[in-house]
Amino acid sequence: MHRILVADDEKDLRELLVSRLKRKGFDAKGAASGEEAMTLLQKESFDIGIFDIRMEPMDGLTLLENVKRRQEMMDVEVIMLTGHGTMETAIDAMKKGAYDYLTKPYNLAELEVVIAKALEKRKLSEENQTMRSLLHAKEKDFDIVGRSAAIERVKHLTARVADADASILIEGESGTGKELVAKGLHYWSKRAAEPFIAVNSGAIPEQLIESELFGHARGAFTGAQKEKKGLVEAADGGTLFLDEIGEMPKDTQVKLLRFLETGTFRRVGETRERAIQVRVVAATNRSLSEEAAAGRFREDLFYRLQVMIIDVPPLRERKEDIPLLVDFFLKQSGQRQLTEHAMNELIRYDFPGNIRELMHILERGCLLSPHNEIEAADLMLPGGTRQASKQDDGCDPLRTLEEVERTHIDSVLTHTDWNKSEAAGILGISVRNIYRKIEQHQLEKNSE
User: What residues have CB less than 8 Å from 333, skipping those under 6 apart?
Assistant: First the structure.
């Protein structure tokens, strides 16, 4: 028998509701105040709590907050009742964890429907407990490959802030594994059994990104033949990972900022406010502080995202991890291994494309090598295996990062006969980015 606690300081309404619920087969109890309800919740277990918002001295929202803070002890779905049904009150209740709300005078049949849905949600949660525990056990083994001091710092910080609700900004060059860190934040947290939704902000056309993120109503624009749930809603309860956040259009940045600050959003073409609980993790290969100072990124959004920043080091700063990464990737391709010379060449190389480039190089080596052992020649390192280490040639090794990047991109473009899609794949960047890099470095076909 399901147990329901009704907290309402209006005696007649409270007793009427308790009586009605008992006739419907529930084990129902009443509490005349928020304090009395807290006492009962600490002593007994309930499946559903029905709380009136207007109570003295502890109102229903405060009671809700207290219950959610002690969720492990008071695992109860809460339905709020209010005689002051403003949208602000309803949204506030939903943000604080209420399952739903009804406005007085409410229809008892409608309340029964909401109770049934809340119980169904609770049932599904209980049925998933074993699965959730197994998933946590499995994902706790999730690891970021590497033992260097630089990557150990990243893993330590990721584990420490995984359970926090604050937004996280992950910074690092393209291909360093920022999405892997985002997954670590998710899988090492209490959200591990909930959705992890990754969004590439630079890959969605500007005119569609708001609809992709927040959804749209039927008829909101040409082609919107049915309503659509956005990726923000799909991530409810879990983690929303916004990759390449610096590529997001400014109009969408405004809406994202409002969502981060209020926990609410509107689908395109709707006036209805929706409230969800989701943890936002963003990533960028640019310096957002510089982008904000230059007016290319909203300062207020940058400050909202930078509550905690995790800086992922480039592969050239953690070269001791290369053998571990090679072993990890080759195990996924079968029992392959590198010759000692091939491994040394990889360690000497600076990897402007970072781990993503390493993956492509190893994939190419597996395709070209007829043997289980992959030779250095099979790797076909762009520009020659010795280019990144000029010390042996008597040349000045102290080139700027921009010079290294220009040389490397030029080499990859030459290697692919200026096939920009193929070059972007090798470099681990988007085609849009490779066009930007060509313009930035003033590269031309057959240039030296």
Answer: 362, 363, 366
